[in-house]
């Protein structure tokens, strides 16, 4: 449960987009066991429901997420399932709506997402070294692919923050928008993604994720099987047919 007695994670279906809200606003949406379990359930709902195409993660209250709840960590240790959740993520696309801050594990939640929308001046960072920890929920593994090894080392070893604007310049953030507008912008992007062929979107995410760090030849070999299977799908036939007939495709996800 959240500190206000409500579930620690809320879900709201908006057409084929699932809005996932981290709901501990009085504790900066920090992780507890219940929040991790709620996020895992939300990902399962997104991935198993064929009517849902994209997820948007946002935070209740004034900000996105400040990472691990250090008070609960002192008493109970690391929440169960946290590393499995952050390693696995979601199969379907995720868009982060980062309002005001995404720090420590909060930035690692954003890094689970394929796209990040952040508010002007939002603080981003992995300051775990300042409290005797390190960014073990994927930050040290995912950030180098986004911003490079040297910039990751600077954030990881100093614990310093950058702004959303700096994150945009570094390639960490896709869009910087006025405060209060991150969710609307993230949902608009999600709806744009949802209009595309579902199998093509899933294949694109899978290849982007799984070929990171592969040699070029390995990447080509990996995507070849996926492409061959996709060519046999009904949607691969519907797309060109709809283009030729100058109409919007009707995707069936098969």
Characterization of this structure:
The protein has 254 residues and is α/β, with parallel strands linked by helices. It folds into two domains: 9-194, 2-enoyl-CoA Hydratase, Chain A, domain 1, CATH 3.90.226.10; 198-244, Lyase 2-enoyl-coa Hydratase, Chain  A, domain 2 (Orthogonal Bundle). The protein is built from eleven helices and nine strands. The protein has helices at residues 33-48, 70-76, 82-88, 105-112, 139-147, 149-158, 164-170, 182-194, 198-210, 216-231, 234-244; strands at residues 9-14, 17-22, 54-59, 94-98, 101-103, 115-119, 123-125, 162-163, 175-177. The longest helix is centred in the first third of the chain and has 16 residues, at 33-48. The chain is globular and about 60 Å long.
Compute the separation of the termini in Å: 38 Å
CATH fold category name of the largest domain: 2-enoyl-CoA Hydratase, Chain A, domain 1
The description of the largest β-sheet is: 6 strands, mixed
What is the CATH C level class of the largest domain, in words? Alpha Beta
Average per-residue pLDDT, rounded, comes to: 95
Strand content is: 15-25%
Alpha-beta content class = alpha/beta
Count of DSSP-assigned helices: 11
Number of domain modules: 2
Radius of gyration: 19 Å
Unreliable stretches:
none
Strand order of the largest sheet: 1-2-3-4-6-9
- CATH H level, superfamily name of the largest domain: 2-enoyl-CoA Hydratase, Chain A, domain 1
Count of strand segments: 9
The proportion of residues forming helix, as a percent range, comes to 40-55%
Label the CATH architecture of the largest domain: Alpha-Beta Complex
């Amino acid at each position: 449960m959240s500190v206000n007695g409500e579930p620690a994670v809320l879900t709201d279906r908006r057409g084929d987009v699932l809005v996932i809200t981290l709901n501990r606003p009085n504790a900066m949406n920090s992780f507890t066991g219940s929040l991790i379990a709620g996020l895992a359930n939300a990902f399962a709902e997104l991935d198993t429901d064929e009517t849902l195409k994209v997820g948007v993660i946002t935070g209740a209250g004034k900000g996105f997420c400040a990472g691990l709840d250090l008070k609960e960590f002192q008493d109970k240790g690391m929440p169960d399932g946290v590393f499995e959740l952050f390693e696995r993520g979601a199969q379907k696309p995720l868009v982060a709506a980062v309002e005001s801050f995404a720090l420590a594990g909060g930035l690692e939640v954003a890094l689970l997402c394929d796209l990040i929308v952040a508010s002007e001046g939002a603080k981003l960072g992995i300051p775990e070294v300042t409290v005797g920890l390190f960014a073990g929920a994927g930050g040290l593994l995912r950030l180098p692919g986004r911003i490079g090894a040297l910039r990751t080392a600077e954030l990881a070893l100093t614990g310093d923050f950058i702004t959303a604007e700096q994150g945009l310049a570094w390639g960490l953030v896709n869009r910087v928008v006025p405060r209060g507008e991150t969710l609307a912008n993230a949902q608009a992007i999600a709806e744009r993604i949802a209009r595309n062929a579902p199998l093509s979107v899933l294949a694109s995410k899978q290849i982007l994720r799984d070929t990171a760090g592969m040699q070029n030849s390995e990447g080509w070999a990996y995507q070849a099987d996926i492409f061959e299977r996709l060519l046999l799908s009904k949607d691969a036939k519907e797309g060109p047919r709809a283009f030729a007939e100058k109409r919007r495709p009707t995707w069936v996800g098969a």
